[in-house]
Amino acid sequence: MRGLIVALLVGCSTPCERLCDARAAAFEPCLGAWQYQWDEFLAQDAKDYANECRAAMRVEEDAASDPELLILHETCDAFIAAHEAAGGDCDRQWALFEEATQTLP
After folding, report:
1. What is the pLDDT of residue 10?
2. Domain range summary for the chain, segments of one domain joined by +
3. CB-based contacts of 85, cutoff 8 Å, min separation 6
4. Residues in the chain where the model's pLDDT stays below 50
5. What is the pLDDT of residue 11?
6. DSSP symbol at 35
7. Neighbouring C-alpha atoms within 13 Å toward the C-beta of 87
8. Contacts of residue 55, Cβ cutoff 8 Å, sequence gap at least 6
9. Alpha-carbon distance 19 to 36, whole Å?
10. pLDDT attached to residue 2
11. DSSP secondary structure code for residue 42 in this structure
12. How far out from the chain centre does Cα 100 lie?
């Protein structure tokens, strides 16, 4: 709840919510190369994926202690930067997705 309250108070999303948006944007052009569709990510489309991801991240943020939340946000910021740096490299985007599933809750 704290993460959501902070986001509402400052009028922006949390780093982990922004990571969800970055992932959805990065994955959209790579689905064909991966031979995947959104339903394999349990979503209808990129927007649905981002929304579901944001909801899951809010649960994790709400459960985190202050030190854990700081680390979680730093990790999400690092993944955002990595997704942006990977650009259209779908192999790198997939590697980041796999790494995140091992790193993030």
Report:
1. 47
2. 2-103
3. none
4. 1-10
5. 58
6. T
7. 2
8. none
9. 20
10. 47
11. T
12. 9
Q: Find out whether 72 and 16 touch, Cβ atoms under 8 Å.
A: yes
Q: By the 8 A CB rule, do 31 and 21 touch?
A: no
DSSP H helical ranges for the chain: 2-10, 15-27, 31-34, 46-63, 66-86, 90-103
Structure tokens at 37: 């569709």
- Please report, in angstroms and rounded to a whole number, the separation of the first and last CA atoms in the chain: 16
Tokens of 72: 């979680």
Please state the pTM of the whole predicted model.
0.84
- State the residue for tokens 């400052």: 10
54 Cβ contact partners less than 8 Å away, ≥ 6 residues apart: 13, 17, 20, 21
Token representation of residue 82: 């990595």
